[in-house]
């Protein structure tokens, strides 16, 4: 739920509801002033949606909307089954001037006291959180914990309990399928519902057309995500993704090892020494050593040619599209640009690549100066 202090709005006189029947006559006095004010409005200041399949109605109240208009609209759509009681309750509590504008969702036949309480308290706050591309599932949980929404344990439990979708097939976990982007955190949001939202967005963005294009090239979705996760970790500038994807696909087609540092960074976090590596270097170790590059792991693409066993991070839709529809180039190599701006120099031959490597080495640029994501 949103990280905010709970609002405690006490409508003390709700207990006088037993007196409402005798006071309904006061409605006309209350109604007259509001009706006069409403006559000057050209556009309704209270809009409502149709009733959803769940029996709820979305209500938008504009600033300055008259209590009478709010009551009338809520009664019209069935949120307030007894408009007169609601109106009298607002009059008795003196809350007419304290009804807050905003967006609400009400169930049909909401009790009058509950309607007044919510309108006085104000609409539920909706916060937004952005998950950048290239994170692992565990990093998403840590981000949620750091931002104060859910604990890491709550996120891990949600992942463990979640049911896989049809598009995941028999894939072992959710890595690669949690679509990066910005998500709303509402009062009713749980770790489990947020995970489902991320899967929903994946299903929405990875269209049948993309899947058909992949299948026509004899690539499964899981293979696409596996390579896309490497593209995601290598690319700093989105416009380079199709070229990076092309270079990797060309290497695969020619039986050349990918030799991608992010795969080694991922491998270091696995197995017996994984926890120690994460604690010392973070999830993505910055500078790899000769020993790191020699690590015997199926995820080490310096040792094992072809694709790794699975994704190493959650790619965004641009990286997925880049793998399915790569640039039409013959690149086999790329190295960081000597401009130290996160871009790359691409090459189709080893001689060209070695020349580019020399340019980078002579530039004085060091890895710490190249834009990258935090660990």
What fraction, in percent, of the residue positions are helical? 40-55%
Q: How far apart lie the N and C ends?
A: 26 Å
Name the beta content range. Answer: 5-15%
Work out the helix count: 16
Class of secondary structure makeup: mainly alpha
Polypeptide structure, described:
With 375 residues, the chain is mainly alpha-helical. It has 16 helices and seven strands. It has a three-stranded antiparallel sheet, with helices on one face. The protein has a two-stranded antiparallel ribbon with strand order 4-5. Strand 1 (46-48) and strand 2 form a beta hairpin. Residues 4-43 have low confidence and may be disordered.
Secondary-structure blueprint:
Blueprint: H1 20-23, H2 27-38, E1 46-48, E2 56-61, H3 67-76, H4 83-93, E3 102-107, H5 112-121, E4 127-131, H6 137-146, H7 152-161, E5 181-185, H8 191-205, H9 208-216, H10 221-234, H11 241-253, H12 261-268, H13 274-281, H14 290-293, H15 317-324, E6 333-336, E7 344-347, H16 350-361
Antiparallel strand pairs: 1-2, 2-3, 4-5, 6-7
Helix pairs in contact: 3-4, 4-5, 6-7, 10-11, 10-15, 11-15
Quick tags:
375 residues, Dna Ligase, domain 1
In short:
By secondary structure, the protein is mainly alpha-helical. The protein folds into three domains: 12-121, Dna Ligase, domain 1 (2-Layer Sandwich); 127-205, no CATH class; 219-369, no CATH class.
């Amino acid at each position: 739920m949103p990280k905010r202090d709970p609002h405690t709005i006490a409508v003390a006189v709700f207990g006088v509801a037993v007196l409402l029947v005798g006071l309904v006559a006061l409605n006309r006095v209350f109604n007259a002033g509001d009706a006069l004010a409403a006559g000057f409005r050209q556009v309704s200041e209270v809009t409502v949606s149709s009733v959803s399949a769940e029996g709820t109605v979305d209500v938008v109240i504009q600033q300055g909307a008259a209590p009478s208009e709010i009551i009338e609209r809520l009664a019209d759509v069935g949120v307030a089954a007894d408009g007169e009681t609601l109106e009298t309750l607002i009059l008795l509590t003196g809350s007419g001037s304290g009804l807050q504008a905003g967006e609400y969702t009400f169930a049909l036949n909401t009790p009058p006291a509950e309607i007044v309480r919510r309108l006085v308290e104000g609409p539920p706050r909706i916060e937004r959180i952005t998950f950048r591309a290239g994170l692992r599932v565990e990093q998403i949980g840590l981000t949620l914990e750091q931002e104060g929404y859910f604990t890491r344990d709550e996120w891990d439990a949600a992942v463990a309990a979640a049911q896989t979708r049809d598009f995941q097939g028999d894939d072992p976990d959710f890595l690669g399928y949690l679509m990066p982007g910005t998500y709303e955190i509402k009062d009713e949001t749980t770790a489990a519902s947020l995970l489902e939202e991320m899967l929903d967005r994946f299903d929405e963005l990875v269209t049948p057309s993309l899947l058909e294009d992949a299948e026509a090239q004899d690539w499964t979705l899981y293979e696409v995500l596996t390579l896309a996760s490497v593209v995601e970790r290598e690319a700093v500038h989105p416009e380079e993704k199709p070229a990076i994807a092309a270079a990797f696909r060309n290497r695969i087609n020619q039986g050349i090892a990918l030799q991608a540092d992010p795969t080694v960074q991922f491998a270091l976090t696995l197995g017996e020494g994984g926890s120690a590596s994460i604690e010392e270097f973070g999830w993505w170790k910055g500078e790899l050593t000769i020993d790191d590059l020699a690590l015997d792991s199926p995820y080490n693409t310096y040792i094992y040619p072809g694709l790794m066993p699975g994704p190493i991070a959650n790619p965004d839709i641009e990286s997925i599209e880049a793998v399915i529809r790569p640039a039409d180039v013959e690149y086999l190599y790329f190295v960081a640009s000597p401009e130290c701006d996160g871009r790359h120099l691409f090459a189709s031959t080893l001689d060209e690549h070695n020349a580019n490597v020399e340019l980078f080495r002579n530039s004085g640029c060091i890895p710490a100066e190249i834009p990258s994501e935090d660990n």
